[in-house]
Amino acid sequence: MPYESVLLGRPGAVSAPEGHPEEGVPWHWGDPFAEQRTAVRGVAIVDRSHREVLTVSGPERLSWLHLVISQHVTSLPDGEGTEALVLDSWGRVDTHMVLGHLDGTVYLDTDPGAEATSALPKGGKQSLAAYLEAMKFWSQVDIHDATGELAVLTLLGPEAGRVLDALGVELGEQAYAVAALPGGGLARRMPWPGRSSVDLLVPRAELAEWWRRGIDAGARPAGSWAFDALRVESLRPRFGVDTDERAIPHEVNWIDTAAHVAKGCYRGQETVAKVHNVGKPPRHMVLLHLDGSPEIYPETGDPVVRGERTVGRVGSVAEHHELGPVALALVKRSVPAEADLLAGDAEQERAVQAKIDPDSLPAEHVAPGREAAQRLRG
């Protein structure tokens, strides 16, 4: 059965359209633009309880995780977190996750339906929990699917600290700081979306109670629409929406934030190191400003076209309270920032004019290996 949050039964909750990536949690509460403004200027609370949560415990939890995910976590301190990926053998992104290390347990939360390519010779997909279990071998770790026990809420906005104080949570100011919640679960400070964000992993049986406590402390209900609009503005991808089956970390701003370029011994590391040291990714993720006058929008997976050539694919599409209709897109690096583009499926009559936001273009990466080779030749 598809997941459906208990909060969808609250007055004012509007569910996302069927098949939408945020199906199962409130899409908005009647005024998505006002919700976004509150998330930027005050504090809003978002139900993200459709996310999946795993825990990894045991004496070898960090050294073992270090071998199977893309991030450097052998010395991840208690009370801190990070982001990480699982890659396939060719370095393509299988899964994105956010971590929190607290009291001898690493908490991993991921988008719903997270999968990874099987370690078996014929590949195929399996759940992230099953993949991690298959990679455990003789390591002293315990992997547990805690989705039925913990649910994610997110506070957005510069006044999130006021809500944390009312909830009795003392949380450090640095990105990915982690602290225990009274009664179980954890709080984790995030550097996105927007300028201030805090994830709360609360007991799932008490989801409605934690939601009410957040509202009583001054947070405004906001839906996944507001969260996604700020995520798009922050140039943060969502796995499976802004990535396709060919996406590598370098294309979607996950190098350094979720993939470590210097550590070895994880699946797909060869591609990560090679592209970083001697190459350039074939595509990069940009923010597109969409022409909103036709009141039609492209959909995830639609082509981005320049002239007669397809030069990219549309990812997340959002209506932002200040920027208007925008989208993240993976486009070829050769596409000029000033190019006139069409985003959307013309045959389905949802192609609109689009322009790249020049501020969204990633800084040109100088490959260390290529630079060293040029010095030697010189």
What are the defining features of this structure?
378 residues, alpha+beta, Gyrase A, domain 2, 6-stranded mixed sheet, 6-stranded antiparallel β-barrel, globular
Task: Describe this entry's structure for a reader.
By secondary structure, this protein is α+β, with helices and mostly antiparallel strands. It folds into two domains: 278 residues, 2-Layer Sandwich (Gyrase A, domain 2); 98 residues, Elongation Factor Tu (Ef-tu), domain 3. Helix content is 19%, strand content 30%. It has eight helices and 21 strands. The strands form five sheets. A six-stranded mixed beta sheet has the order 12-13-14-11-3-15, with helices on both faces. A six-stranded antiparallel beta barrel has the order 16-19-18-17-20-21. Strand 17 and strand 18 form a beta hairpin. Helix 1 packs across helix 6.
Low-confidence regions = none
Total of helices: 8
**Helix proportion:** 10-25%
What is the total number of structural domains? 2
Q: Per CATH, what is the topology of the largest domain?
A: Gyrase A, domain 2
Task: Write out the strand line-up for the largest beta sheet, numbering strands in chain order.
Answer: 12-13-14-11-3-15
Indicate the CATH architecture of the largest domain.
2-Layer Sandwich
CATH class of the largest domain: Alpha Beta
Give the helix/strand class: alpha+beta
Which percent band covers the strand fraction?
25-35%
Biggest sheet layout: 6 strands, mixed
Taking all Cα atoms into account, the compactness measure Rg is 21 Å
